[in-house]
Amino acid sequence: MKENGNRFKKQKLRRAIFLDRDGTIIKFEDLVTKPSQLRLLPRAAETINKFNKLGFLVIVVTNQPVVARGLITPKGIDDLHEILIKRFKRSKAHIDAFYFCPHHPEATLKKYRVVCFCRKPSPGMLKQAIKKFNIDPRKSFMIGDSVIDVVSGKRAGLKTILVKTGPGHSRLDRIYENKVRPDFKAKNLIEAVKIIKNKC
Hints:
Blueprint: E1 2-3, E2 16-19, H1 44-53, E3 57-63, H2 65-68, H3 74-90, E4 97-101, H4 124-133, E5 141-144, H5 147-155, E6 159-163, H6 170-176, E7 184-186, H7 189-199
Parallel strand pairs: 2-3, 2-5, 3-4, 5-6, 6-7
Antiparallel strand pairs: 1-4
């Protein structure tokens, strides 16, 4: 997990926007391990700035099986997220925390070969952030390009928005697509902002 400062203390319940990473705030590319692969989606920074102004925490939650494959270390993932924090900051957009899951049930590296509670569609990363940042899930949203983001959000008690800016996770999505529906669908993050404004 990469946290960007400590702006919020545990006092009153906060609202949060949870965002998937690949296909939601950056362009989807298989096996992201290098800074050159971090390409922001159009208007992603603008949208996060809007979430900031609405008073939401912005927290990114992402599965990173590239760690389980031995292609990058957890420190390497943190370094990539630090780069994203700086890029968003240049556009006056603030991300409060990054959470990532390094595990995979078929991991190349044995220490990451587990069925964990943090890998989406499990809600572990979201619940960890909810506890740490004193978040009210009933007033918070999970936004992602995959049905597994929707499943994870619903299991954590969040409202969910499915965006069409990435390919999702076709194999896992097929398992859940007939069992769960997002609360809302949006073409992109800008459209998601409009939905959230109407529901606040």
